[in-house]
Amino acid sequence: MLMNLQTATPRITGFSVATKTQVPNNGPTIYAFGQCIETITQIGCKDCLNAQYNNMQSCLPNSDGRAFANGCFLRYSTTSFFPHNQILDVTRFSKQVTSKKGIIIGGVVAGGSLALILIALFSMIRRRKSPKMISIPRGDIPGASKLKGPVAFSYNVLKTATKNFSEENKIGEGGFGVVYKGTLWNGKVVAIKKLASPYSNKVDEEFESEVKLISHVHHRNLVRLLGCCSKGHDRILVYEYMKNNSLDKFLYGDKKYSLNWKQRYEVILGIARGLAYLHEEFHVRIIHRDIKTNNILLDDDLQPRIADFGLARLIPEDKTHLNTKFAGTLGYTSPEYAIHGQLSEKVDVYSYGIVVLEIISGQKCNKLETDGDVAGEYLLQKAWNLYERGMHLELVDNALDPQDYDADEVKKIIEIGLLCTQPSAETRPMMSEIMVMLKKKGLLENMRPTMPIFIETN
Questions:
Q1: Of 140, 204, 248, 290, which is the active-site residue?
Q2: CB under 8 Å to 457, separation ≥6 — which residues?
Q3: Element (H or E) spanning 357, and its range?
C-alpha cells in the first residue's frame, strides 16, 4: 500500500492522497496518507516520498508509523485519521504506470492542509507532557515555512482598503478587536479585523501558527479566513465579507422580524454543521470558545457562517479537555468553563444551546425579562420553567406566525437547547448527535434534560 501511495501522490493535483486497505483473512484495516508541499516538483515529490518510505521500514511492525521531511509526509495507522469520503483506491496507479496510460484526477484533499495538521499532531504528541500545550508554534513544525499558508497582506494595502481604518468603514467592534469593511485593489470586498491584543513574542508565535491552521478550515458554515497581516504591534485578520451582517441584528436589532421559522431552523441546523466540523470532522479538534449570535454571520442566502476565531483553541488528541484562563462572553459560557476554566468541545455545545433558545425566542440571553409583577427571569431560566410546566411554546417569538411552524418540532428544538445547557458537560450531546436530533421527525424519546445552573450575568 505504501509503495502504491508513493507512486500515486506525485500524480495527483495537490500532491495529497488518503487511502486504506483490508488485511486478508479478517485482518485489520490499514489507513495511510501521503502528501508533498505544492511548491515541490513532481520528481521532487516522488524522491522525497521514496526516501520516507525507506525510513518508515523501521516503524514496522508497529500499528502506527510516520515519516516526514521538509517537502513531504507519509503515515500509516490501523486507526482511521481522516474522513472516509477522502479515500482513494491507489492500486490502479501502479497498473497505470505499467500500461503508460495518462492520469487525470482531481485533488482529493485540500492542498497543504492535511499535511500541516498531521505534522502538527505529531509534534503535539511528542510534546504531550507540556500542560500549556494548546497551540503549535510554527518553529516546531518541520517544513512549516514551505507549506502553503494564508495570504500575507501588506499593512498599506489594508490601510488603503479601509480608508485608514476610518469610522465610516467600521462594521463591528468587540473585546477582541474592531472589524472594518474594506475594498481591495481588485474590487473584492472583505472584512478586516484589527485585533486588540498586547504584543509579545508568545502572542506573535501563537498568532502565526494558529492563523496558519485556521486558514485551512473550509466549510460552508464557517467564515473563510483569507489572510493576515503583522506590522509592529498590529495583528490583522482578513475574512470573507458577509453583507447581511450578524444574526443578532435579525433577532433583536435593526432587522428584527426578518426571519421566518424555516429560515431560523436553517440557521440552527447550519450552526450545528459548522461546529460538528470543528469538533469532529477536522483533523484537530478546534474549540471556538465564543459562540454567540453576533459571531454568527448570514450570507446572501441567509445561511449561517460561524465567525471570529480570535479565541479558538486546539485540543490535543490525547486530551479530553484543557484547563485554561477564561475567555468568552458571560451568558453564553458553560459553568465548568466560567468557574473552573475547564475547556472542552462541550463548552461550545453549551453556547450553541443558548443561541438556539435566542433564535426561537427572539430574546437576548443576558437581558432580564419581566412580565408584570412576576420577578424577572433570564432566558435560560425562563425556558426551563416553561419546559417544566409543559408550556414550551410560550417561549416562541411573537413575530413568528404559528401557521408557519410545527408545534412538536419547535418543542423538540427547545428541548435540544436545554439538553445542550445541562450542568454536567458529560451529559450534553455531541454536535453530530444534535444534527441527528434536528433532522429526526417527531419528539425526542427517552431524553429529558436536567435543570441547568443559572449564573447571574450582571
A1: 290
A2: 330, 331, 365, 366, 378
A3: helix 345-361
Q: Compute how many other C-beta atoms are within 10 angstroms of the C-beta atom of residue 9.
A: 28
Cell numbers 431560566 correspond to what residue?
Answer: 381
Contact 422/391 with Cβ under 8 angstroms?
no
Buried b (16+ CB within 10 A) or exposed e, 86-111: ebbebeebeeeeeeeeeeeeeebbeb
Rounded CA separation 329/364 (Å): 13
289: how many CB neighbours lie within 10 A of its CB? Answer: 23
Which are the contacts of 231, defined by CB distance < 8 A and separation ≥ 6? 155
Extended strands (E) in 114-162: 151-152
Q: What domains can you pick out in the chain, each with its CATH number?
A: 2-115 (3.30.430.20), 151-240 (3.30.200.20), 247-439 (1.10.510.10)
Strand partners, 67: 74
Peptide bond into 61 cis (omega under 30): yes
Q: In 124-233, where do the E strands start and end?
A: 151-152, 170-174, 177-183, 189-195, 225-231
- Mapped onto helix, strand or coil, the DSSP state of residue 290 is coil
Q: Are strands 16-22 and 29-36 parallel, antiparallel or unpaired?
A: antiparallel
* Nine-digit cell string for 253: 436589532
d(CA 248, CA 54): 56
Which amino acid is located at 88 in the chain?
Answer: L
- For residue 131, the model assigns a pLDDT of 26
Three-class DSSP category at 169: helix
- pLDDT, residue 206, reads 57
| Cell triple for 210 | 494558529
String of b and e for 349-374 (b: at least 16 CB within 10 Å)?
A: bbbbbbbbbbbbbbbbbbeeeeeeee
Q: What are the φ and ψ backbone dihedral angles of 68, each rounded to 5 degrees?
A: -150, 150
Q: What is the mean pLDDT of each run of 10 residues along the chain (458 residues)?
A: 86 83 86 78 84 83 79 84 71 55 37 44 38 28 40 91 94 79 92 73 60 79 89 86 92 87 97 94 83 93 85 45 54 85 90 97 82 69 94 94 94 96 94 93 84 71
Answer whether 325's CB lies under 8 Å from 338's CB.
no
Strand 369-371 and strand 234-240: pairing? Answer: unpaired
Known active-site residue 290: yes
Q: How far is CA 393 from CA 8, 240, 370, 412, in A?
A: 57, 37, 18, 11
Neighbours of 60 (CB within 10 A): 10
What is the distance between the alpha carbons of residues 380 and 418, in angstroms, rounded to a whole number? 8
